[in-house]
Amino acid sequence: MYTVLARKYRSQTFDDVIGQDPIAQTLKNAIKTNRVAHAYLFTGTRGVGKTTMARILAKALNCLSTKEPTAEPCLKCESCLAVNVGDDIDVIEIDGASNNGVEEVRRLRENAIYRPARARFKIYIIDEVHMLSTNAFNALLKILEEPPEHVKFIFATTEPNKVIATIQSRCQRFDFVNINPAAIAQQLRKILGEEKIEFEDDLVITLARMANGSMRDALSLLDRLISIGEHPLKLELLEKFLGFPDSEKLALLISKIADRDAPGTLTALDNLISGGLAEVQIVDALTDYMRDMMVAKSAGADSDLLMLTSAQRQKITDLAEGFDIAGLVYSITALEKIRWQVKNTENPRALLEAMLLRFALAEHFLNVDQLLSSGSPKTSATSKPQTDVKKNAPVRAEVTAPVTQPRDLSIRDRGADLDRIWPQLLQIIAAELGGGTAGPLKMARPVSFEADTLTLSFAPSAKVSKNICQSNGRLEQIQNCLSAHFSRPITIKLLVEGPDNASKDGPSKGPDRSPAQRRNELMSDPAVKTLLTGLGATITNIEEE
Predict the structure, then answer these.
(1) Which of 41, 51, 91, 306 is deepest in the core (most CB within 10 A)?
(2) Got the DSSP string for 483-522?
(3) What is the distance between the alpha carbons of residues 221 and 218, in angstroms, rounded to a whole number?
């Protein structure tokens, strides 16, 4: 008789349990030091080992091969063998979903007073304990508060929030974590080896990720693949028989979005839907794929945060070149928000098509810094997103001779020289620190360069640009950039033209400006105009420092 893999390879000892080492070690130490509690509450998602751990604990407490509880049950005595199959007279497993009434709990209390038939303890394992009614929970309280010394309770639940607080306070609670995909993949390889089944590693990696932290789900999926009867096991079997999205078709869809190809995006989506995928499956697959792209672009393709084969890492890296991090973050967030609607609407295809077209036809996802430096918020809809400028970009090769000669700037009060060199310094700052830092500096006028201090002046209407230059550590970054370029410490001083330091071209900021005048000055600032236009925003309130 065939036994499914989840039962055949169920962990038998504490050391066998996958991914729950802290809990296993704690329970082993409690047994060794004779500090076993009378009630435990095991919580966690499905398939992470709650019931398995409960059975192992029961075997450890009742193993007949030793005179007292042991952290290493023999697995051969009558008690251990009976617990393994769920047929031990002293270890009673109860399904909380089907035995959730107060009468069942009352019978449990009546039977609990009798000593075990052959073992040390009478152990009650109640699975899905959150399904008990309120009256049933209340019936448990008294025996949990003052249990007979021969009784142990082990509760398991996927929804601990539904277990009343008075029950939880009488238990030692252990929260089981989702199992790491790497640990799941390692176990799958081990099982396939013992079953003498050939397989491709990319299949195992994909199965481990599909399991979402559940060892049982991973083994169930593997069982389905083995039953197909094709060897070796390949990734194509997932796509053909289990409804997993075709990786090539999914990559094509993402590449069409990156290329701003609206017709191609719709065609690529149609290919996935025609292959039998539901729209919500495509949303989930796109979210996972874009998450990998975001990680690859942020932490590098070799990051341990990515569980991919070498070929998959290369594919992810190539596709990520068509996006910037801000765009990927926006896309993932938008897909997650729309998932519930796609799953529950009567016309999911139209909704998904609209979302993907929004991605494909959207302008570049500019952040605030980029908007401030762009001068104009409009970007070609067909152009690819700009990539981040690398700090090691070869900027100085494009700069003309005066910039590479620091001696020109060592002359005091050489206004003409400063005016000539200032645009080239802005180019260096933009290349090193990005347009968001250089953009507000364009509103400044170089006044002097004395004792390695560069003085810049802003008109009153550009006060916001000055504040931007001083915020978020930008001023220090600018000073470090110029110091590195000129090979000596450079200090930057920022001024706002006013009665004390006005120039012949700069308007004076009167002391008695009305709120309306101050608002008009702010609204006329070029940086503010660009920001409002690019974001489609409206000023609702103005606070002055």
Answers:
(1) 91
(2) HHHHTS--EEEEEE--TTT--TTSPP--TT--HHHHHHHH
(3) 5
Residues 189 and 73 in one domain: no
Distance, in Å, from the CA atom of 41 to the CA atom of 171, rounded to the nearest integer, reads 6
The CA distance from 401 to 104, in Å, is 91
Q: Residue 62: which pLDDT band, with cuts at 50, 70 and 90?
A: very high
Beta-sheet pairing, 91-95 with 122-127: parallel
- Closest to 484 measured CA to CA, from 537, 433, 411: 433
Q: Are residues 440 and 491 in the same domain?
A: yes
Domain count, the chain: 4
Range of the structural domain that residue 306 is part of = 247-361
Q: From CA 272, how far away is CA 248, in angstroms rounded?
A: 10
Cβ neighbour number for residue 120 with a 10 Å cutoff: 18
Indicate if the pLDDT at residue 409 is higher than 50: no
Question: Do the Cβ atoms of 97 and 131 come closer than 8 Å?
Answer: yes
Choose between 537 and 405: higher pLDDT. Answer: 537
The CATH number for 217's domain is 1.10.8.60
Q: For residues 24 and 150, state if they share a domain.
A: yes
Q: Which range has the worst mean pLDDT, 282-296, 314-328, 395-409, 483-497?
A: 395-409
In this prediction, residue 377 has a pLDDT band, given cuts at 50, 70 and 90, of very low
Say what the pLDDT of residue 1 is.
73
Nearest-angstrom CA–CA distance, 335 and 281: 12
